[in-house]
Design a protein that fits this description.
By secondary structure, this protein is α/β, with parallel strands linked by helices. The protein contains 9 helices and 7 strands. It has helices spanning 3-15, 82-86, 94-106, 119-122, 125-136, 141-147, 158-166, 179-187, 207-217, and strands spanning 30-40, 43-52, 59-64, 73-79, 111-116, 172-175, 192-196. Helix 5 packs across helix 6. The two termini are 24 Å apart.
Length: 244
């Protein structure tokens, strides 16, 4: 058994009955329940399954190497996208982002991809299809969400923050173009030490979607084709994070 797997199994055994007051506005608590080896076309990983107390949805951490007790762990927080991840939809860049993240993390000594069950920016699969129908009539992604009574983005990264705490990561570098992901993690007590840009080339079907994310949601996406260099984030530590 590898040292990384041994550390993860110790955490699962220790945390199996974990309960806490939760974090974030919804007082969310998660616990790791199982770990296994996961060989993939992108590299060899370990997968840790998590239960949460809010809605029973199951989330997973896909880990490369030993992340326990590590500083500056490269992580990607990927929200579930059935149409993109599984069906290969060209309306978004989700599958490209997921595969690129797994390929990148798979090439590193250590890192993590957190796969979060937050379909359609947190509005769910049915409402996502409804939003698609509104976009077919000319609305952009922000307008479509608002027309359905939602905010631009309903995702909550308290799940990811607690997963990071549970696995004993001391600080992370976030693979993202979305500044809100970094801010939410920092507000929840995660020490964020940097950003790793994660821009995918647009196609004819998703270019307007990506342009909307950049123009209206503040995502760091440059359509000029220039290289994107990592940026450093000021570390922020918030008191009151749950004890593992």
């Amino acid at each position: 058994m590898s040292e990384a797997l041994a550390h993860l199994e110790e955490i699962v055994d220790h945390e199996r009955e974990h309960e806490c007051e939760g974090i974030g506005a919804k007082r969310l608590c998660v616990r790791p329940v199982s770990v296994a080896v996961l060989p993939t076309r992108f590299g060899d990983f370990h997968i840790v399954a998590f239960w949460n107390n809010r809605d029973g949805k199951e989330h997973v951490a896909i880990l490369r190497g030993d992340v326990v007790g590590r500083e500056d762990v490269p992580i990607r927080m990927h929200s579930e996208c059935l149409t993109g991840d599984a069906l290969g939809s060209l309306r978004c860049d989700c599958r490209d982002q997921l595969e690129a993240a797994l390929r990148k993390v798979g090439s590193l000594e250590f890192g993590a991809v957190l796969y979060l069950r937050q379909e359609g920016r947190g509005i769910g699969l049915i409402n996502k299809v409804r939003a698609y129908a509104l976009q077919d009539r000319g609305l952009d992604t922000v307008e479509a969400n608002r027309a359905l009574g939602f905010r631009d983005d309903e995702r909550d990264y308290a799940i990811a923050a607690h997963m990071i705490f549970s696995m004993g990561m001391k600080s992370v570098q976030v693979m993202t173009n979305n500044p809100d992901k970094m801010k939410q993690l920092q507000d929840l007590g995660v020490r964020v030490t940097g950003r790793i840009p994660h821009v995918m080339p647009p196609n004819a079907y998703n270019r307007f979607y990506l342009e909307t994310k950049a123009a209206r949601s503040g995502h760091f996406i440059d359509f000029s084709g220039r290289a994107h260099l990592p940026e450093q984030a000021e570390p922020v530590v918030v008191e009151g994070m749950p004890e593992p």
